[in-house]
Amino acid sequence: MTIAVKIKNLSVTLSGDVKALKDISMELPVGRSIGFIGPSGAGKTTLIRSIVGRLKPTAGSIEVLGLPAGDAKLRDQLSYMTQELSVYPDLTVKENLRYFAIMMGHTKDTNTIIEEVLNEVDMIDKADSLVKNLSGGQKQRVSLSVALIGSPRLMVLDEPTIGLDPVLRESLWKLFNKLKTRGTTLLISSHSMDEAERCDDLILIRSGKVIAHGSPSELKKQTGTKTIEESFLSLVGGEPE
Predict the structure, then answer these.
(1) Mean of all residue pLDDT scores within the chain
(2) pLDDT tens digits along 148-157
(3) CA distance to 119, 135, 169, per residue, from 174 (Å)
């Protein structure tokens, strides 16, 4: 399989007749980091929630790893890290990971799984700490460690580095690049144009529409600009969202 996600003529209308996504079509390749980039309210989270099966399309279709989005068979092949804290604050880091590992069907060797994912996010020393006592960046890493359980083929990460300091952000991108070498596909939502430079491919979104799709170098070449932020502004005519 070479295509991780295939989207055809996707439209999503939310409550109040808000057209959050408008006739989107794209194919996203396996084993790459793909950034969904755009300002707040552009439709990035709606697109992500549609891919993971949390939102039903108003029109069009989505295939994920060859199956319809939301199919039960995708449960152990796909992970989703939301913007909001997705772990229990009154449990320890280890207790959270054991709970989610069991919920995902990993009833054996949970200690090994916990150790592996905590090593990945450099949180071994916080295994017995209550989540509510952790810093914001540490809580973010615990959420990411849950998404790593089971070595999913597709990881969907909504603003995974928001609020993190530059050193921690750099360490997480090193982890993302390591995951790619294992064949994992990463879909990463961000409003940071600096983060966009780190992705293999970019989907630039504005007002529910895809305005460009290509590698950072391709988009900069296409627009004759030096940065992705300049490319984005060039493509939207410099108008505010």
Answers:
(1) 91
(2) 999 999 999 9
(3) 13, 21, 9
Strand locations in 136-233 (E): 154-158, 185-190, 201-206, 209-214
Apex CA 172: angle with CA 169 and CA 177, to 5°?
125
Are 140 and 163 within 8 A, CB to CB?
Answer: yes
Q: Which CATH architecture has domain 1-77+153-241?
A: 3-Layer(aba) Sandwich (3.40)
How far apart CA 107 and CA 116 sit, in angstroms, is: 16
Q: Where do the domains of the chain lie?
A: 1-77+153-241, 83-151
Residue whose token pair is 């449960």: 75
Q: What mean pLDDT comes out for the span 213-228?
A: 94
Rounded to whole angstroms, the Cα distance separating 176 from 187 reads 10
Q: Up-side HSE of residue 219: CA atoms within 13 Å toward CB? A: 26
pTM, full prediction: 0.90
Residue 238's pLDDT is 54
Question: What is the side-by-side strand order in the sheet with 185-190?
Answer: 78-81, 154-158, 185-190, 33-37, 201-206, 209-214
User: Distances from the Cα of 8 to the Cαs of 57, 76, 95, 196, 206, in angstroms?
Assistant: 11, 24, 40, 24, 18
How many Å is the Cα radius of gyration of the chain? Answer: 18
**Helix 110-120 × helix 136-148 angle, to 10°:** 130
Residue with tokens 């590992």: 101
Phi, psi of 146 (to 5 degrees): -65, -40
Q: What strands lie across the sheet with 67-68, from one edge to the other?
A: 18-29, 3-14, 59-64, 67-68
Residues in the chain: 241
